[in-house]
Amino acid sequence: MNEKTVVITEMDGKYRVENNGISEFALLGILECIVFDLKSAKRAATEINSEIKTANAPAPVVESTPVKTKESAAESNSPELRTRIANAIKAIRGLGGQTPDFDADSASDQELQEELNALTEQYKRLKGAKSPGK
Fold first, then answer.
1. pTM of the predicted model, to two decimals?
2. Range in 61-75, 84-98, 106-120 the model is least confident about
3. Would you call 60 helix, strand, or coil by DSSP?
């Protein structure tokens, strides 16, 4: 069997390569494989260490969320209704329509929903009046 050897030594940050029977091109390929293996091993060790740290970490504290009642659900719908009303007013004015002043900040959820329904109907009428020409 024909034995080929490569000896790499390092001294004070300088490397010395002695090869016996291996072309420089083949030696570069071998070194690239070694570097890849070292990086893979380091990556695997890092993943294992992070898994160990995660396993040893205390369990996260889970905060309970309050159960939504009708009142809290209505409160969460109010900002959405106000936004939809503002968008409907812009759309109606964009079609050349007139909208009455409406104080959405002091209105109840029921009043907000009624106003949104009225604006939606007005928008549909304006859109229908503009569409037949198309």
1. 0.42
2. 61-75
3. coil
What distance in Å separates the CA atoms of residue 19 and residue 7, rounded to the nearest whole number? 6
Q: Which amino acid is at 99?
A: T
Backbone conformation region of residue 121, classed left if phi is above 0, alpha if psi is from -120 to 50, else beta: alpha
CA distance 39 to 33: 10
Other CB atoms within 10 Å distance of the CB of residue 112 = 20
* Element containing residue 130 per DSSP (H, E): helix 109-130
DSSP code at position 68:
P
DSSP letter string, 2-21: ---EEEEEEETTEEEEEEES
**Cβ-based burial of 85 (10 A; exposed 0-12, middle 13-18, buried ≥19):** buried
pLDDT tens-digit readout, 8-46: 888 888 888 887 877 877 777 877 878 888 888 877 777
List the Cα angle 43/44/47 in 5-degree steps. Answer: 90
Both structure tokens of 48: 């294992």
Task: Tell me how many helices (H) and strands (E) the chain has.
Answer: 3, 2
